[in-house]
Write the structure tokens for this entry.
Amino acid sequence: MSQDTEKKAAAEAAALLIEDGMIVGLGTGSTVAFLLPAIAKRKLDIRCVATSAATEEAARALGLAVESADEVDRLDLAIDGADQIAPDHWLVKGGGAAQTREKIIAAAADRFVVIADSSKLVAEIATPIPLELLPFGLAATLKRIGHVTLRDVPRSPDGGVIADYTGSAADPERLAVWLSSVPGVVEHGIFPASMVHEVIIGRGKTVERLTRAL
Ligand code: 5RP
């Protein structure tokens, strides 16, 4: 079964979690691209916040009401894709370079639901880990991180330089703490399991709702 079929199945299942009156965070990427029409089709009275210009544009084109994240201090639900999903539900995100905005929205949501095709399930988290870096003092930040490559993509909408950490990710929790402690690192793509409320994986045309391995 194609990955797109699985992405669509997961996205459509997640769209059913949305109820009238909710403020909903919309992630970024090809799986979220299947989520947006599934939400629009339900014709609910909801307010949305987007994690990227691409998502905002696509959502508005489908008639969804998208508000600025600057004025929304909490959300009922956020739904987003992921690049890696470990059995304990630690995630890696940021393949689309939107990890900073995605993490802010996920953290502000009462429920953060991850949608993905089955290829995103991994036995353990591995590098590369996406990074957003402050342009100021970039050379010093890169030197401190050590194992890092700059990504050949435009800066983030917030002016951040997009890079990938390429060292060891054997202990994701420790790595997340360390990356957050490096001056100049705006955000990294490791999302802790404590942030994740549900993982919906497409399996063929059906979905699996995963519970976390403790
Ligand atoms: C963007 C992300 C995406 O959610 C992640 O890369 C998954 O993308 P896709 O749904 O296209 O596989 O983190 O920054």
Remarks:
- The chain has a mean pLDDT of 97.
- The chain is about 30% helix and 30% strand.
